[in-house]
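Data availability (excerpt). The following record was deposited with the supplementary files.
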Amino acid sequence: MLDFAKMHGLGNDFVVFDAVTNPITLDAERAAFIADRHVGIGCDQILLVEPTEHVDADFGYRIINADGSESEQCGNGARCLARFIAERGLHQAGVTRLATRNGRIDVETLGDNQYRAALGVPNFEPANIGLNGFNAATQYRLDDVATQTVVFDAVAVGNPHAIIDVGDINRADVAGLGPALENHPAFEHRVNADFCETVARNHIKLRVFERGAGQTLACGSAAAAAVVSGIRRSRLDDNVTAKLPGGQVTVDWSGPGHPVYLSGPASHVFDGTINLE
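Predicted structure:
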């Protein structure tokens, strides 16, 4: 039997395991079972806190999507993992340093279950986004996404994102264009499809079709990616509130070469045990 915690950040929900105290081997089949909302526990992603060999990190941080694939980044998950680590007594500090597959995330405890995560320096190079067949540009165009033409920004914030501007977030075709863009052959490693409505220079609305998880209530790295893209095109200020279906976060970015920061809550719902034999 394995102990777990069910947590969420703005409704982006997670099953969290302590693989420091109890090493866990999770293959894609077991992960998909855990994430299944009918026969398993149910979640968007599974989070593991593990030992790390990185001398500049406190723990390893693995993110496994609901379909069993593995992700490089999860901003909402990072906040929840920092709370989990503190509540389990694994580490007590103002900042928790997490080593991911694609870099390090530092999560600062702000109090009242609020956390601020440094998600790294955004990368706009197509090769680092896994975007094939394009030279670096501010925006890109594909003419064959579910028989539609889609113009989008592209950025890697630990994981790849395509950001589509929409006039009304409630009318965005997330269910249709989301999976078509996620699996478009132009993206070597698939992509998160982010639909963004700019409300004001300090306020956006966002809906996300997450790679490997589908449409979710919130995605922290998508909020960071959308704000970074808006700042880059001089449409947004450097501190922006992003409202998603599950709630809102704050993103701040000082520009190219600087890390992007994501601030918001982490919620602990319940604890349980599961038999994976």
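Summary of structural features: The chain has five helices and 18 strands.
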